[in-house]
Design brief:
single chain; 810 residues; mainly alpha; Rossmann fold; 41 helices
């Protein structure tokens, strides 16, 4: 109570004699009587001069008061200890609730970080595989001496090779399950600080981590545990530019940490050679063991259509186990061939055929040929169904094999229900999921956890990619054209003519009501590119419908985050979507119809801006020829050249500059095209921009960094070398954090860049605004190699930073 007017008003209204300013609150939680002496005016003139006198008066009054209280009155009161217990319980309850809230917040942040790292839901995939496991399956691997040695030894690598369809991924899921069962506290672990720091460092700048950043964090996380297991499945399926790099980097970490590696792949020579370089390694062939095949068959034989399937159990298991030749996938397909047999004789004849097919199969090539023959036979069974079932199966396989991403069951159902050319969706035309699976005769499965419908094995995708003609139907075009037409028809439905949703609630309701809308909006252009030219002539009709186009763009540009304030994307013209997908002919047709080339979306971006970002140089050239402004500026102050430079599109950058684009255009963050190119490591674009007159030491206004500072921070050695050769200032201090290029490179552990900067004359001990030197940053982040290099180059080990009052080595 420090307001005199409020004090006087309350005193007059409530007949208050005095105000207690400190201890009276205790009475709410503790059985007591507060006795205080009046010592000041209880307002802004509060002072301590009378506190001593007031305390003595209160003590004398309390003593006199105690003489007036009889002992039995005291005994009737609740003991203080009991009151304290109650207070303590209340405090603990509050503490527990606070911890629950904090844990919920931390859990939500963990989910956000994991989604930021990768959108792939590994848990659902693992759950789907394990849920299909028969008791005892994979026991031969878990019980083998090589596996036990790998599991118990230190720094050990187990390389498991097997032909396609042998069950490598399934066995990997079993190993994961076995290892997780031994981690009693797995459900209570939170994300390590290194992962959080990586997320926050990039989230604030809206950037993505480099491979080196991820590897460095991985090393830090592994160092937190006494022993770590990494499982790499299907290494042979990695892209060619990535496959040799990933194992090499993992081996480097293994050399410094107690890391065990489990690897599966096809038995290719290059992969074998990579893993034979490990000092401690074992090789193990993965093949479908007879006992695993038998276990799988035991659970399914009772479902056969013959009167007494038990009498055939032994024959079926022996014939299929032998014919499968170590391929679990082939065993699945062979059993599928028995499911339409209705007599014992038919089954026995099929088993005889299986044995005949197995004769002479020994090499990997012959086994793959047997798998191909099984696919061919399955397609014959599909085509032998009733016309309606055959047509449904073909449509299912078209969607699954052409889809740009895995489809959920509801998405696929809606795709199959589309009637080309109709303006309304027919809910009564939705096929049943069980029917969808059944008509595909074992080629398709559904993951129960994720509800993803997929081919049972990736080799089927390879099979259909080479044989698209198998999916042609007399009543529909080729697969890509069928899917493209279905997407365009879906997006053209009358229900979307209301345009973009004005609220988040209505937007989510639309997605739930129309499951295929998200996929169709994001990927129709990808299918159009691969479809027949005929359909491209019909797309402009859809793009001229402004409301439908804007509805599709809203969902296509939705980032997937649940937020209340939707940043609604409304284009108002059909030219933006085809430029986004690089559809030159469709863009040409729309422009010839008179649609404006420079219409802006709500981000202020023109079609040329999108084409430049996506590296569609032919589309960009067309737009410029039709009058598009080369230096159009969006709401972020960015030009087409800025977008092309950020994404490293040299041909588009060259075109824009030739057509008069401003080389040193500045966006709202003060960033030039050269800053964007340097920040993302695009050496060729950096070279081109400098040759065309870009300012080498341009400084952005958001962080106060130069191109050299950004390149150094992100570890792009070639760009750093080029900028220095072109005269970039080595010791320029940024205005936000006060760091130099050397400081940034040291903080992030880029030894090669640190060495290059020092060799070119960078000051080793320059102090930033936090009083830290490059050595302080390198030491604080655990970059041992950089610390050693800096000390060798004369960095002071006893410098003291002003923020934490520490030396680099303290």
């Amino acid at each position: 109570m420090k307001d005199a007017s409020a004090r006087d008003r309350l005193a007059a209204e409530k007949d208050v004699l005095c105000f207690e300013m400190e201890a009276a609150g205790l009475m709410n939680h503790f059985p007591c009587l507060v006795i205080r002496g009046i010592c000041d005016y209880s307002d802004s003139h509060k002072n301590k001069e009378w506190q001593g006198y007031a305390a003595m008066a209160a003590a004398a009054y309390a003593k006199d008061l105690l003489y007036q209280i009889t002992p039995n009155k005291i005994e009737a009161e609740k003991p203080i200890a009991q009151s304290l217990d109650e207070v303590q319980r209340n405090v603990k309850e509050v503490q527990t609730r606070v911890e629950e809230v904090l844990q919920k917040q931390r859990s939500q942040e963990d989910d956000d970080i994991l989604r930021w790292l990768t959108p792939i839901q590994y848990y659902s995939q693992q759950h789907d595989f394990i849920s299909q496991r028969q008791p005892g399956t994979g026991r031969w691997l878990l019980g083998s001496e090589k596996f036990k040695t790998w599991q118990n030894a230190a720094k050990h690598t187990l390389y498991c090779h097997g032909i396609p369809g042998a069950g490598k991924t399934f066995l990997t899921s079993i190993v994961i399950d076995d290892l997780l069962l031994k981690q009693l506290a797995q459900g209570n672990l939170s994300l390590p600080a290194a992962v959080r720091n990586l997320y926050h460092a990039h989230e604030v700048r809206k950037t993505r981590p480099l491979r080196e950043d991820l590897l460095r964090v991985l090393h830090s996380v592994i160092a937190l545990s006494s022993k770590t297991f990494i499982l790499l499945d299907a290494v042979d399926e990695l892209p060619d530019d990535c496959r040799p790099k990933l194992p090499a980097e993992i081996f480097k970490i293994q050399a410094k940490a107690n890391l065990n590696i489990f690897v599966t792949s096809r038995p290719t020579l290059d992969v074998q050679k990579e893993f034979q370089e490990c000092i401690l390694h074992e090789s193990l062939e993965v093949r479908a063991r007879d006992e695993d095949v038998a276990s799988y068959l035991d659970s399914r034989i009772p479902a056969l259509r013959v009167s007494d399937p038990e009498s055939l159990r032994k024959q079926i298991k022996e014939a299929i186990s032998k014919a499968a030749e170590g391929m679990f996938l082939l065993a699945q397909l062979y059993f599928g061939f028995l499911q339409d047999k209705t007599t014992v004789t038919e089954i026995k004849n099929a088993l005889t055929e299986f044995r005949r097919n197995a004769e002479g199969i020994s090499s990997e090539a012959s086994k793959l040929e047997a798998l191909t023959d099984a696919y061919k036979h399955t397609m014959e069974r599909i085509n032998g169904q009733l016309p309606g079932l055959r047509k449904l199966a073909n449509k299912v396989l078209c969607w699954i094999t052409c889809a740009e991403r895995p489809l959920t069951s509801s998405e696929l159902q809606h795709g199959l229900a589309v009637i080309i050319g109709r303006s309304e969706f027919d809910d009564e035309n939705l096929p049943n999921v069980d029917t969808i699976i059944a008509v595909c005769q074992g080629l398709v499965t559904i993951d129960k956890e994720s509800q993803i419908i997929r081919l049972v094995h990736y080799t089927m995708q390879e099979y259909f990619d080479k044989r698209r003609h198998l999916l042609h139907d007399s009543q529909m075009h080729d697969p890509e054209t069928y899917v493209a037409e279905s997407c365009i028809t879906y997006l053209s439905f009358d229900t979307f003519q209301s345009g973009p949703c004005p609220s988040f609630e209505l937007f989510m309701k639309r997605l739930r009501r129309s499951p295929l809308f998200d996929y169709a909006a994001r990927h129709w252009g990808n299918h159009i590119i691969k479809a027949s030219p005929e359909i491209q002539r019909r797309v402009p009709n859809f793009l001229e419908n402004e409301d439908n186009v804007n509805s599709s763009i809203q969902v296509a540009t939705f980032p997937g985050e649940f937020r209340d304030d939707l940043d609604l994307q409304t284009y108002g013209t059909g030219v933006h979507p085809p430029t986004y997908f690089g559809l030159l002919k469709i863009t040409t047709a729309l422009l010839e119809k008179g649609l404006p080339p420079d219409h802006r979306d709500n981000l202020g971006r023109t079609p040329l801006s999108w084409a430049s970002q996506k590296s569609y140089d032919a589309v960009a050239r067309l737009l410029i020829e039709k009058g598009a402004a080369v230096d159009s500026i969006d709401t972020g102050g960015r030009t087409p050249l800025s977008w092309a430079s950020e994404n490293g599109h040299e041909a588009v950058v060259q075109l824009l500059i030739e057509k008069g684009a401003t080389v040193d255009s500045i966006d709202t963050g003060g960033r030039t095209p050269l800053i964007w190119a340097s920040r993302n490591g695009h050496e060729a674009v950096v070279q081109l921009l400098i040759e065309k007159g870009a300012t080498v030491d341009s400084i952005d206004t958001e962080y106060g960094q130069t191109p050299l500072s950004w390149a150094s921070e992100n570890g792009y050695e070639a760009v750093v070398q080029l900028l220095i050769e072109k005269g970039a200032a080595l010791d320029l201090i940024d205005t936000t954090y006060g760091q130099t290029p050397l400081s940034w490179a040291s903080e992030n552990g880029y030894k090669a860049v640190v060495q290059l900067l020092i060799e070119k004359g960078a000051t080793v001990d320059l102090i930033d605004t936090a009083g830290q030197t490059p050595l302080s940053w390198a030491s604080g982040n655990g970059h041992e190699a950089v610390v050693q290099l800096l000390i060798e180059k004369g960095a002071a080990v006893d410098s003291i930073d002003t923020e934490y009052d520490q030396t680099p080595l303290s």
